[in-house]
What we know:
Elements lengths: L1 H11 L6 H15 L14 H15 L3 H14 L7 H19 L5 H23 L6 E12 L3 E8 L11 E6 L3 E9 L9 E7 L7 H7 L6 E5 L15 E6 L3 H14 L5 E7 L8 H10 L3 E7 L8 E2 L2 H8 L6 E6 L1 H13 L7 E5 L4
Cofactor: heme b; FAD
GO molecular function: 2 iron, 2 sulfur cluster binding; heme binding; nitric oxide dioxygenase NAD(P)H activity; oxygen binding; oxygen carrier activity
Catalytic activity: 2 nitric oxide + NADH + 2 O2 = 2 nitrate + NAD(+) + H(+); 2 nitric oxide + NADPH + 2 O2 = 2 nitrate + NADP(+) + H(+)
Amino acid sequence: xxxxxxxxxxxxxxxxxxxxxxxxxxxxxxxxxxxxxxxxxxxxxxxxxxxxxxxxxxxxxxxxxxxxxxxxxxxxxxxxxxxxxxxxxxxxxxxxxxxxxxxxxxxxxxxxxxxxxxxxxxxxxxxxxxxxxxxxxxxxxxxxxxxxxxxxxxxxxxxxxxxxxxxxxxxxxxxxxxxxxxxxxxxxxxxxxxxxxxxxxxxxxxxxxxxxxxxxxxxxxxxxxxxxxxxxxxxxxxxxxxxxxxxxxxxxxxxxxxxxxxxxxxxxxxxxxxxxxxxxxxxxxxxxxxxxxxxxxxxxxxxxxxxxxxxxxxxxxxxxxxxxxxxxxxxxxxxxxxxxxxxxxxxxxxxxxxxxxxxxxxxxxxxxxxxx
Length: 372
């Protein structure tokens, strides 16, 4: 599989700078091959191609790690049940993908690349189909919005109750959410901001810039208690290692606080010996929407500390600077289990700090959040 991984990464360099063309060709070919597939996608396709490419890139990068590769693809197969994807659809997708890659790559494409993608896609499709077939849960859950609280113009915290069937998740995981009343067939992922509970209630932290956001915009500005959402199967591996006895570092930026809060709640139920250090960063004090709630947890649990920081608020009575720099000032973190959640830029900066502290990669788990 090493040669296949090398050929995939090598050939990807031929198309990665022209993703828009690759995506457009793929969907045009897909819908030409099977016009019925168009019904599975949203009316407005803006952003849909990015999700396809992100999945492809993730699969390529996990190819060298068989366990992660298998877990990611089986989870992706379970998740795609919400789109009503059938096993026969995977063959059509494979034909369209190969055609789009050849066309976009142009003269740089060769038979070795072609065969590597054929082989890799066959494995990807088989694992996704197996993951979907092994899942006894419904393809999605209907969930009623219970509470909706705004924090400024662009952030909301809402709770929902999954109806009819228990929704199994672990602290640190994320789910896809659809707002069918406002944006049918458009899904976006959000981390669950609380640990599992008997009430089947999930909490979400959502941020969207003014005038944008699609699903996030609908969740922040339009959704009200009593409305129904759809929630798909949980995914993600930023979960607690309960066998570890190491202390824990949790780093959150903005709404990246969501999975961090969930992990703290899980630790509250099981922790007896581990010190837990939370670093929570935002631009201004007003953006630290969840700070009061975290301080309540600190008051209840002597093993927990929370260090807030602001990068653009010189009047803030606390740590100043980017959260990654603040984490570096408090290190080293070599002996900790580390969890990082926030924007891609923030996560990259924090991972560099942890690498400089020589934290083993196996002890670091992370999730990235887009701005929308």
